[in-house]
Amino acid sequence: MNVDDRKATATVNQHLAASGLRRTPQRQQVYKALVAHPDHPTAEQLFLRIKQTTPKISLATVYNCLDALIACGLVRQVAVDRGAARFCANMDEHFHFHCESCNSITDMPLKGAALARKLGLPRGFQARRLDMTVHGTCRTCSARVRA
Amino acid sequence: MNVDDRKATATVNQHLAASGLRRTPQRQQVYKALVAHPDHPTAEQLFLRIKQTTPKISLATVYNCLDALIACGLVRQVAVDRGAARFCANMDEHFHFHCESCNSITDMPLKGAALARKLGLPRGFQARRLDMTVHGTCRTCSARVRA
DNA sequence: CTAGGTGCAAAAGGTTTGCGGTTAA
DNA sequence: TTAACCGCAAACCTTTTGCACCTAG
Description:
Chain A is α+β, with helices and mostly antiparallel strands and about 150 residues long. Chain A is built from six helices and five strands, in the order H-H-H-H-E-E-E-E-H-E-H. A three-stranded mixed beta sheet of chain A has the order 4-3-5. In chain A, a hairpin with a 5-residue loop joins strand 3 and strand 4. Chain A is globular. Chain B binds a DNA duplex (25 and 25 nucleotides) through helix 4.
């Protein structure tokens, strides 16, 4: 287990405990897989990856673990149109760039969306979470089309 | 047919024609139903509403019509976590407030998200569409909890 | 006339649930 | 010890597809 793995495991354990959830190898695995490949995978993609090292894990467990990780504030999900939910372990404030060509999702540094959060929410509305997704064409796909 | 209906029908016909799509009663119905109740319904809710006046319409047709309306720029869809897609006929720039308590979606005037659109997208990325959703508790639900 | 659309039913995802067995605390 | 969690399979919900019929242009 390398340094990143150790750190991820420590993070999971700490957050799960803080939320009164059990720390299980599966939850640690799911989190580590998500941190290792921050490409916003679907639950099934995550499942397939984890199965390579832990063949006995089930897809339902991946969903359950993801929900536990969301509950303890380590993971957020990204909804794109009618597609499968995608997951993100970057909890820094950022928004997502969704490429309509290759379907990739790229984290984008925030720069002022924090500002957007405070922008004119009428009194009574309480903001807890901001999802901002820009849809368009990513750099790779832009380049490919032009070529 | 009242003034709003007439106007909505004219809008649909115009946009469909401009995109080379046929104007059909079903597409007009779906658009009118969406404009009449701007509560961001799911495809099925829309289907149930339309069925009251047009009992023969099918759910598949509602999906098809929605896709046609999206294609011609009259409708956008709003994805929320793992729930069913919801639809919005307000094409003015705005963001969505999703209430995690009652699951309602409220249109919010933009104020500066246009700014967010230009915020630091690295060169090569082309923005075509911005989805911004604030999740939290709406006014009604905030009031109910406090009471 | 005929390409594009509709309605129906069946299939295909994606996600959740029920349950018997396992395990973290 | 035991409530929480896992793995499996079945169920569920949402969305798409195939096909025969219909209709707008």
